[in-house]
Amino acid sequence: MAPEPETMPISVDFLGGLDTLFSNKTSHAISLPLLNPSDSSPANVGFLISYLVKHHLKHPRTEFFVQDDGHLTPGILVLINEADWELEGEEECELKAGDKVVFVSTMHGG
């Protein structure tokens, strides 16, 4: 059996209704592997998104969070330690222990 990968603690929040996709919980304490197992690169936001889909997304309608290509659905704002992810490199932004990542849906039905 393979050894468990080293992990780092990060905080992930889902706002604007996204919590309904993740067990109706707004805040999650995640133990994210330090390295992406597919290529051994340091964990980044793109890896976090795929990790969340695989391990934490409990709703059958995954398209509310990610598109078929694995990228976030348009209309979701991402903050990394309170900064817009567009300023941090988006999916390529490397994560560190203790980081806080917030996903906010800006799409509202009516």
From TrEMBL:
Residues modified to 1-thioglycine: 110
Annotated InterPro entries: Beta-grasp_dom_sf, Mopterin_synth/thiamin_S_b, Urm1
Post-translational modification: C-terminal thiocarboxylation occurs in 2 steps, it is first acyl-adenylated (-COAMP) via the hesA/moeB/thiF part of UBA4, then thiocarboxylated (-COSH) via the rhodanese domain of UBA4.
Record carries keyword Amino-acid biosynthesis: no
Pathway(s) this gene product operates in, as recorded in its UniProt entry: tRNA modification; 5-methoxycarbonylmethyl-2-thiouridine-tRNA biosynthesis
Alphabetized UniProt keyword annotations: Cytoplasm, Isopeptide bond, tRNA processing, Ubl conjugation pathway
Subcellular location: Cytoplasm
SUPFAM superfamilies membership: MoaD/ThiS
Name under which the protein is recorded: Ubiquitin-related modifier 1
Gene: URM1
